[in-house]
TrEMBL record, chain A:
Pfam families: TctA (PF01970). The chain crosses the membrane at residues 20-40, 47-69, 108-132, 139-161, 167-187, 199-223, 261-284, 318-345, 357-375, 382-407, 436-453, 465-486. This is Tripartite tricarboxylate transporter permease. Residues 20-441 form the DUF112 domain. Keywords: Membrane, Transmembrane, Transmembrane helix. It comes from the Bacteria. The keyword Methyltransferase does not apply. The lineage of its organism: Bacteria, Pseudomonadati, Pseudomonadota, Alphaproteobacteria, Hyphomicrobiales. The keyword Transmembrane applies.
UniProtKB/TrEMBL annotation, chain B:
This is Tripartite tricarboxylate transporter TctB family protein. Keywords: Membrane, Transmembrane, Transmembrane helix. The chain crosses the membrane at residues 38-60, 72-99, 111-133. Pfam families: TctB. Residues 7-138 form the DUF1468 domain.
């Protein structure tokens, strides 16, 4: 019951005019950038870090969180109407959403995704309120050894569950860790990889890297070919068309429930988040379905499950951030950057030291989701107009805002160079089959990992034995090894059976 | 050699160089993990995984349409030019130039169209960053901004 009392208290914080206004701004911006292909939540949240510093820490997180889960509402729109995902976590919505739209059921597809996201969002908020404090008190028992193991586990998950070839994901994890070690080593005072450039002494700023990797490189992707979406957008949606009928609800209810539970669980894991949750839910629904052949041809379950999973995951990933101080994915990592810029250190003590922030942010998710369902069902027509913005204008606008945004973090022209070079390199990596999300996550977790690893080694007088004698650490390392080894074994078995057949 | 293999080899070289530099920083100093230990491990991991990725070689391309290379190169030049122009010309002039260049030069829009969009976007970015966020945008040698 404590949780409900605290949540009510949080609601009081979230209903303050400023917080209400930023929640609305987050919902509108999130939906908009979710719909627009090109600008995803990572780049947008990075762009808004300088704005968020002007706000109170609570309002800042409410704004940035709203953009994240709001983008998941909007993201499916372009997937359904154009088969162009507005952002990465909405790729799955193309599979069955687009065939539904082709079959004249675009309205229902848009409607069911919004309702699936809403239901998952509201359920996830209550579950966070219930389990969050328990997580924080457990995490107080975590020392450097346990934290190291947890981060290693998170990186293993990020590399193993993500898109694309696993070995390439591991290379990106390694590159991210390497980039995190650029700058002055805080323990020894030695400069690492600074090449005597004074600007590199403080290392790279996460927002600058994120804007380069997810903003500038996207400009180059948009530049690859001329696109025109207008013909696909001639349809008009009346509110009546958007409401799923009784059969649609019946078909979606169970997938939504499963999706919410799966998404919430995956969101808790470092390395998890909306993207993985939506893929996992799709695979699960297809396996459990009595008629899996309908998937990919407009099965509403293939839309409802993943849409609730990605929203539940996005919200659940605030638990590792706010209760453990560990960012579960790249977007949350940038939000963590925003908190640190405010002087708020996320971790198990946050809920004790800043209860108004913790409960205010959680409660704002209820308000945010309520605003989003209004924006994404009755007002979806207005947002669909955004898809009429010609890509010719989108690309330079993203570039301008990312470059000037990068400048504004430290008022430094050096960062302008970093964001552009980073954009070119990221484009090259993306085109060669490297996924950038593990890179950014590893960059974020790198300094945390190094600090805790070194402390753990010092505690063990130079021996790594503590990492296997602590039961919590051992458990994380064993699961990490299993996630690493099991897919390899399955592949081997598959190859062997393939040879026999 | 395809692009996937080439970039994997470049990454391997970065990993190797990074590991070598980290080695010189010291992996273990005064009975404690030194400043080089962590970057050495990261560099070694990068080297090993990139070599494996290079051996694995080509990845299945999911591209359905071919890339318009000419267009891409022009955009790349615009991106680089925008960054380089920031300091000497200032943010406002660089923004105007970028939009005019992209819309007129690459997208073949009319001068009037390009000019209107350029002025609107330049004013918008100036308003947001200079006025609202009080960011001291680079003014360039002309002192505009």
């Amino acid at each position: 019951m404590d949780a409900m009392v605290n949540l009510m208290g949080g609601l009081g914080v979230a209903l303050e005019p400023t917080n209400l206004a930023v929640a609305f701004l987050g919902a509108v911006l999130g939906t908009a950038i979710g719909i627009l292909p090109g600008l995803g939540p990572t780049a947008t949240i990075s762009l808004l870090l300088p704005v968020s510093i002007m706000l109170e820490p609570t309002a800042a997180v409410i704004l940035l969180a709203g953009i994240y889960y709001g983008s998941l509402y909007g993201g499916s729109t372009a997937s359904i109407l154009l088969r162009v995902p507005g952002e990465a976590a909405s790729v799955v919505s193309c599979f069955d959403g687009y065939p539904m739209a082709q079959a004249g059921r675009a309205g229902v597809a848009l409607g069911i995704t919004a309702f699936a996201s809403f239901i998952a969002g509201v359920v996830a908020t209550f579950v966070i309120a219930l389990v969050g404090p328990a997580f924080a008190s457990t995490a107080l028992a975590f020392g450097p050894v346990e934290k190291t193991a947890l981060v290693v586990f998170g990186l293993t998950l990020a590399a193993n569950i993500g898109e694309g070839p696993r070995i390439r994901a591991w290379a990106m994890v390694a590159l991210g860790l390497l980039l995190s070690s650029v700058g002055v080593d805080l323990v020894s005072g030695e400069e690492r990889y600074t090449f005597s450039i004074p600007y590199l002494r403080d290392g790279f700023h996460v927002a600058v890297l994120a804007m380069g990797m997810f903003g500038v490189s996207e400009v180059l992707i948009l530049a690859e070919r001329q696109r025109d979406f207008t013909p696909a957008l001639s349809a008009r949606y009346r509110l009546r068309d958007l409401l799923p009928d009784a059969k649609d609800w019946k078909d979606s209810a169970i997938p939504m429930t499963r999706g919410t539970a799966l998404g919430f669980f995956l969101g808790l894991l470092p390395g998890g988040g909306a993207l993985i949750a939506s893929f996992a839910s799709y695979v699960m629904e297809k396996r459990l379905s009595r008629s899996p052949e309908r998937f990919g041809k407009g099965a509403i379950e293939g839309l409802a499950g993943p849409e609730s999973a990605n929203n539940a995951a996005a919200q659940a990933s605030f638990i590792p951030l706010l209760c453990l101080g560990i960012p579960a994915n790249a977007v949350i990592g940038v939000i963590m950057g925003g908190l640190l810029m405010q002087g708020v250190v996320p971790g198990p003590r946050l809920i004790i030291d800043h209860p108004e922030l913790f409960w205010g942010v959680i409660a704002s998710m209820l308000i945010g989701n309520a605003m989003l369902i209004v924006l994404n069902v009755p007002l979806i027509r207005v947002f669909v107009l955004l898809l009429r913005i010609p890509p010719a204008m989108m690309a330079p606008s993203i570039l301008i805002f990312c470059v000037i945004g990068a400048f504004s973090i430290n008022n430094s022209l050096f960062d302008v160079g970093v964001v552009i070079i980073c954009g070119f390199l990221a484009y090259g990596l993306r085109k060669s089959g490297f996924d950038l999300a593990p890179l950014l996550l590893a960059f974020l977790l790198g300094s945390l990992l190094e600090e805790n690893l070194r402390q753990g080694l010092i505690l063990g007088f130079g021996s790594p034995v503590l990492f296997v004698t602590s039961p919590i650490s051992l458990a994380f390392l064993v699961i990490a090894t299993l996630t690493l080894v099991l897919p390899l074994m399955r592949q081997l078995r598959w190859q062997r059976s393939g040879n026999v057949a | 050699m395809n692009a996937a293999r080439l970039s994997a080899i470049c990454l391997a070289a970065v990993g190797l160089a990074a590991a070598a530099m980290a080695w010189r920083l010291g992996l273990w100093t005064m009975d404690r993990p030194g400043p080089g230990l962590f970057p050495f491990a990261a560099g070694a991991l990068l080297f090993a995984t990139s070599i494996a990725a290079a051996i694995q070689g080509e990845i299945a391309e999911a591209e359905d349409e071919p890339v318009d290379r000419r267009r891409l190169l022009r955009y790349a030049a615009a991106v680089a030019g925008f960054g380089l122009a920031m300091k000497p010309l200032g943010a406002v002039i660089a923004t105007l130039g970028l939009i005019l260049g992209v819309l007129r030069g690459i997208e073949n829009r009319s001068w009037a169209h390009a000019l209107v969009v350029a002025v609107v976007l330049a004013a918008l970015s100036w308003g947001v960053f200079r006025y609202f966020l009080s960011v001291p945008l680079p003014v360039g040698i002309l002192g505009i901004g």
